[in-house]
Design goal:
Blueprint: H1 3-10, H2 13-23, E1 28-32, H3 48-55, E2 58-64, E3 66-68, H4 79-82, E4 83-86, E5 88-94, H5 97-113, E6 120-123, E7 129-133, E8 141-142, E9 145-146, H6 153-177, H7 180-187, H8 191-194, E10 195-196, E11 199-200, E12 206-209, E13 218-220, H9 270-283, H10 309-315, H11 322-335, H12 340-351, H13 360-372, H14 414-418
Antiparallel strand pairs: 1-2, 2-13, 3-4, 5-7, 5-12, 6-7, 8-9, 10-11
Helix pairs in contact: 5-6, 6-9, 11-13, 12-13
């Protein structure tokens, strides 16, 4: 493209409007030919700022994944003070466009499996896609810590968990595209690198990249041009992904109507965050500190008659909170002595009572992940944790729970208290008085 064509594109009112929407409270800068960044920090205050950056020679515009109270005041020592939020963005990175499109569809389905509907998708202008969940969908606190303070550890754990969750489905989806030999050829690798003992390693073809979650990292703005292809980084409806083609991102072929990270859905990502934190604890240690484990020991599985009221209510079947309840049930049952084959049967029976039932693959994943873990069981969320038992309407504390005070602390402690298994420290035995020797006179 000639410079005049590039300037005309960025001067379009519809392009500027959508760029300004996503630029709010973010750092923004231009990227020049050769990959050099413009001056940082920078921001967009007016639509004319976009054309000003382009007139100075920028071909792309990038913005921060983090949201700031004062983007122009950013310095290396004040990130935590100025950060007001962050968006969760996964970069679907690959060499072949068809591989990237297939992976984006699998990742979208994974987000929906976790109850997220207000996510965004955009083509990067190359061969991959960005899948984003807006800050407003995140829970305010995670394990009593403010989520805004958990960047980048929390989004990194979320990305790692999703990668593992998607592995099997991604392998199946990619195998439907072509033979392993063809897939390897398209990815410019040897077929031996692609094959694994069970099939193929899908992450040799496409990567769900966590690089976007380093501090002050910038990503290509929606509707920015990609300097290598001169295609736009175009937002796409998830329902249109299956038939989206790269040509649709040519600058003259679309009107800027879709936004990116503009959903107003609140707290949708709670189940995903909980799963990611649990996965992190079982595989790589706790997020931001050691895992707090309940040191409980059961010689045999606790019978349902001794379950706490919240677990009994969940087992009756639910309409709301079903995905959070899978997390609660698997952690509770594994913490109170249940074997994974029995947990699998109970979850299948429980799921049949839900309205509507959860997808079978969602249940299977949790059982497979838990049964394959070498770590000690991680307890379910504590009784006072926000967004769990009260939020889904299953908290009905009885005397054993400690009533309204919920002094039992965690559902996994309930059967211990109920069965009188908590050992009180033994009182020291009274000292025996030494008998005095008797003397005969």
């Amino acid at each position: 493209m000639y410079f005049s064509q590039i300037l005309n594109y960025y001067s379009r009112q519809d392009i500027q409007q959508k760029m300004m929407e996503v630029a709010r409270d973010r750092e923004v800068t231009g990227i020049f030919r050769g990959g050099a960044f413009g001056q940082r920090p920078g921001s967009l205050q007016y639509p004319a700022d976009i054309t000003s950056i382009v007139k100075n020679g920028a071909l792309e515009l990038h913005c921060s994944i983090e949201r700031w109270s004062q983007p122009m005041a950013l310095k290396a020592d004040n990130y935590s003070q100025l950060r007001t939020g962050w968006d969760f963005i996964v970069d679907v990175d690959c060499d072949d466009f068809r591989h990237g499109r297939a992976a984006a569809q699998v990742l979208c389905k994974a987000l929906e499996d976790h109850g997220i509907r207000g996510y965004s998708v955009k083509f990067t202008g190359g061969t991959g896609f960005h899948i984003g969940v807006p800050w407003g969908s995140m829970p305010e606190k995670v394990d009593f810590k403010a989520s805004v303070k958990l960047f980048p550890d929390l989004p990194r754990a979320m990305c790692a968990y999703l990668k593992e969750y998607c592995r099997d489905e991604l392998e199946k989806t990619l195998m439907k595209l072509d033979s392993p030999e063809k897939l390897a050829e398209q990815a410019k690798i040897k077929v031996g690198e692609l094959l694994s003992k069970d099939g193929i390693n899908p992450f040799k073809l496409v990567e769900l990249d966590a690089v976007l979650i380093s501090p002050r990292h910038l990503f290509r703005m929606p509707y920015s041009l990609n300097m290598k292809s001169m295609l736009a980084s175009l937002p796409v409806k998830p329902s249109d992904l299956s038939h989206f083609e790269r040509q649709q991102a040519e600058p003259g072929r679309f009107k800027a109507t879709l936004g990116f990270l503009d959903s107003d859905a609140k707290d949708e990502a709670g189940a995903l965050v909980a799963e990611a934190v649990d996965w992190q604890a079982k595989n790589k240690g706790a997020l931001g500190g050691p895992v707090r484990k309940l040191e409980l020991s059961f010689s045999r599985a606790v019978e349902p008659a001794h379950f706490p009221p919240c677990i009994k209510r969940i087992m009756e079947g639910l309409q709301d909170g079903r995905k959070r309840s899978v997390f609660i049930l698997t952690n509770f049952l594994s913490s109170v002595g249940w074997k994974w084959e029995d947990i699998d049967k109970l979850l299948a029976e429980w799921n049949s009572k839900n309205i509507p039932p959860l997808p079978d693959n969602y249940i299977r994943y949790h059982v497979r992940r838990g049964s394959g873990s070498q770590a000690k069981p991680v307890p379910p969320p504590g009784c006072r944790n926000e967004g769990w038992y009260e939020s889904i309407g299953v908290c009905i504390p009885d005397e054993t729970c400690g009533g309204a005070s919920k002094s039992v602390g965690n559902p996994a402690r309930y059967p211990v208290r109920k069965l009188g298994m908590l050992k009180k420290p033994d009182k020291p035995a009274p000292k025996k008085r030494k008998s005095r020797p008797t003397y005969r006179t």
